[in-house]
Amino acid sequence: MLGQTLILIERELLSYKRSVGFMIASFLSPLMYLFVFGYTLNKGMPSINGVSYLNYILPGIIMLVVIYSSLNSATRVFIERKSHALLDLLSLPMNKSLVPFVKILIHSLLSAFNALMFLLLAKLTICSELYLSIDNIPVLFLAIFSSSFAVGIFMMGIAASLREEQSFNSLTSLFLLPMIFISTAYYPVSLMPAVLKTLARINPISFGADLIRNILFGIEIPISEMISFVVFSIVGISLLHRSFGKYFK
User: Where are the domains of the chain?
Assistant: First the structure.
């Protein structure tokens, strides 16, 4: 089993190597977003729970890095499924359950590493007052990893379930932007209209952003976000298992 796992890991890393351009773009785009959106609005926005707006928005943009990485991984799953490369892989004499496991593991590790590098770069350039230490960096990595796992497994499950490219593009466009903006990624729940507050509290992206904020600034995470995050992860696992399940028999 170890040999099969290593082969699958090597295959996944090679596929990421071929999409290095997308990974660079997914890294630089949030940095530009942080500079243009966060830095320019920082002076005009009041502090939130004692945290400057520039620092408040940083965890939300880290979630943007996670979402871009998840979209990249989901797109590759969809392309492999469309080209029958995924079917060929699952037809090989190996433990079939390793395939989705390795895919989501490599995605989550690389996404967390990418987001952590973005955080360090932001610390060196724009958010110089941000406190990072040898104590909270490993915890931050685990927090980002768990967020990457939940978002990635959900999007991979959708990608592996859909047959038409148009359906995949429509679903990602329909849900991603609303989920990002109806969350605490860019502003707290207290500033939202009443109708959006409940949606923001059950948005799993809110949990990811607030989890990182809690580690960096000690801002409390509502219990509703934790429950939503767990439910979101379970739904993602169910989707992924349903898509790959027929090959496990």
Answer: 2-247
